[in-house]
Amino acid sequence: QVQLVESGGGLVQAGGSLRLSCAASGRSFSSAAMGWFRQAPGKEREFVARIGWSGERTRLADSVKGRFGISRDNAKNTVYLQMNSLQPEDTAVYYCAADTVYTGTYYVRLPNDYSYWGQGTQVTVSS
């Protein structure tokens, strides 16, 4: 079992930055790959970033490459999403998720492949 709690969302002006955190409980965290997804109103949940169990490898969606970064601290059971140069199109609810089945980053994996989800945190970017 893994429980996930996101924090760090809020309202920011275009060009600004936010760092999201996802605190995990449960012994499976350090062996799980972690992902960040987002969902804007009326849209499907989309992949943002993924990090392997060790933190050595990451994957980013093309739409956020060069602006976002994902990292993790297994000692703190926390995964982070650093978001820079935010744009209004980044406005969404951001979710972290744990993949306890496939722990690499070669495959991004679909939302249904992730075993555990947080409740989400709202990010709003004003123009």
Structural descriptors:
127 residues; mainly beta; 48% strand
Mean pLDDT: 94
Percent of residues in helices comes to: under 10%
Largest sheet: 7 strands, mixed
Order of helices and strands: EEEEEEEEEEE
DSSP strand count: 11
Total number of helices: 0
What's this, in brief?
The protein is built from no helices and 11 strands. The chain has 127 residues and is mostly beta strands. Strand 5 and strand 6 (58-60) form a beta hairpin.
Describe this structure in words.
By secondary structure, the protein is mostly beta strands. It has no helices and eleven strands. It has strands at residues 3-7, 10-13, 18-25, 33-39, 46-51, 58-60, 68-73, 78-83, 92-99, 116-117, 121-126. The strands form two sheets. Strands 2, 4, 5, 6, 9, 10 and 11 form a seven-stranded mixed beta sheet that branches. It has a four-stranded antiparallel beta sheet with strand order 1-3-8-7, with no helix packed on it. Strand 4 (33-39) and strand 5 (46-51) form a beta hairpin. The mean pLDDT is 94.
Helix-strand layout with pairing:
Elements: E1 3-7, E2 10-13, E3 18-25, E4 33-39, E5 46-51, E6 58-60, E7 68-73, E8 78-83, E9 92-99, E10 116-117, E11 121-126
Parallel strand pairs: 2-11
Antiparallel strand pairs: 1-3, 3-8, 4-5, 4-9, 5-6, 7-8, 9-10, 9-11
